[in-house]
Amino acid sequence: MFKRHVSRAVFALAVVALLGAAIYGQFSHGLSGFEPFLPDSVPGAVTFNALRSSGGTVLFVARDADGQDLSYVTAAEGPGYGGPMTVLVNWTLDGVITGVTVPEHHEDIPWWRALEQRGFFQQYNGRGFIEPLRLNEDIDAATGSTVSSNGVAVGVRAGRGVLASHLGQPFTGPGDPIQFGTPEIAVIAGILSVVLLRTIPLFRRLTWARGTMLAYSLVVFGIWLSVPLSLTNIAAWLVGYAPPVETFIMIYIIVFGILGLAVVLGKNFYCFWLCPYVAVQELIHSIFRVRIQPDVKWFKFLRNARYLLLFIALFLVLALKNPSVSVFEPWNVLFSLKGTADQWVLMIFALGAAIFIYDFWCHYLCPIGAVMDIILRVRRGVIELWHKNNKSAASHDAPRTSS
């Protein structure tokens, strides 16, 4: 009983600390404005005057020392993997793009460099404001950096909309369709398969089911799509950076599908069944056949490290209002083969430890595992409280008989 009260007290203090970090982040990291980035966007410009704004997107006119109009500049925010990015677009006075720059972003450097090295930004040059500028149709996304590519595209189109209205020709072309195809179907099929295998008694007795699903997750979620459930996906919503559903419906399927099923059905359908990193760890462990099992007391102690890492990551995300600080999971480097030096070191360490300790990352360090455990524990607590209150109410309402 004492341990339960201590656990609840620690959980309550952690929640209070996270709420405090969120409040601090909202007030200390609000929008600083686009003006500081403008001087470097148009050579020769002396002044930038705001002409029009809509939904946070601002249209500026750049003027020289004589007061002559040089060009238009639109400034907007696009949704990146690690949070919002500032997207500046230079336009001629008749609405043709001459340059796209992103002076501020929170993307991982290896993925961002892919955009620069593959000439992603140059594709916009020479395109007019009347063009759709849709990603994967008019503009090619940089392979492996789809999220960052989309963030830039959203910022460019937001600026195009404000400029078109200013020029008296509001854009009426096609918008972005919801991208739902084979990848999304494959993800849904994987999730539903695990639900059936773990809830229907007949399927639960199949000994090969888990191995089959892990192989499926390795091929589909890992190698093909590289979309395992990540803490960054969850953290982005916590600070209000929701990705556009039109181009990232898969993220919605994975995050809300897996977390929602845990809330509704009370089971973790992802960890040890659909996580591709689990498949890699167990494959390595089975190849080397080394068995080291920590003492039970040490196992319980070390297992709590996941919660500490989760708390630190979320605290920094909320305080800095930057989801990218939560990017430390090794699967990101493993399946993309891109990452910073520290991310490579962590991945090698985690895989090396998996040789000796079964599912090392999952048991001791995985923040997603901690999130799933917290969801299930809170769910059980709410149900227990609900039953307790109902039982108490029924006892109170029961008719009393005199002796």
Descriptive account of the structure:
The protein has about 400 residues and is an alpha+beta fold. The chain folds into 2 domains: about 10-25 and about 180-390, no CATH class; about 40-165, no CATH class. Helix content is about 55%, strand content about 10%. It is built from 15 helices and 5 strands. The protein has helices spanning about 1-30, 110-115, 145-165, 180-200, 200-205, 210-225, 230-240, 245-265, 275-290, 295-305, 305-320, 330-335, 340-355, 360-365, 365-395, and strands at about 45-55, 55-65, 70-80, 85-90, 95-105. A 5-stranded antiparallel β-sheet has the order 1-2-3-4-5. Helix 4 (about 180-200) runs antiparallel to helix 6, helix 6 (about 210-225) packs across helix 9 (about 275-290) and helix 11 packs across helix 15 (about 365-395). The radius of gyration is 25 Å and the shape is globular. The relative contact order is 0.10.
What are the salient characteristics of this protein?
2 domains, five-stranded antiparallel beta sheet, alpha+beta, globular, 403 residues, 5 strands
Overall spatial form: globular
CA-atom Rg in angstroms: 25 Å
**Could you estimate the helical fraction of the residues in percent?**
40-55%
Total DSSP E strands: 5
Structural class: alpha+beta
β-strand amount: 5-15%
Number of domains: 2
Count, helices? 15
The helix/strand series, from N terminus to C terminus, equals: HEEEEEHHHHHHHHHHHHHH
Trace the largest sheet across and list its strands.
1-2-3-4-5
Could you report the average pLDDT, rounded to the nearest whole number?
A: 88
Main pleated-sheet profile = 5 strands, antiparallel
Distance between the termini: 36 Å
User: Which consecutive residue ranges, at least 5 long each, have pLDDT under 50?
Assistant: none
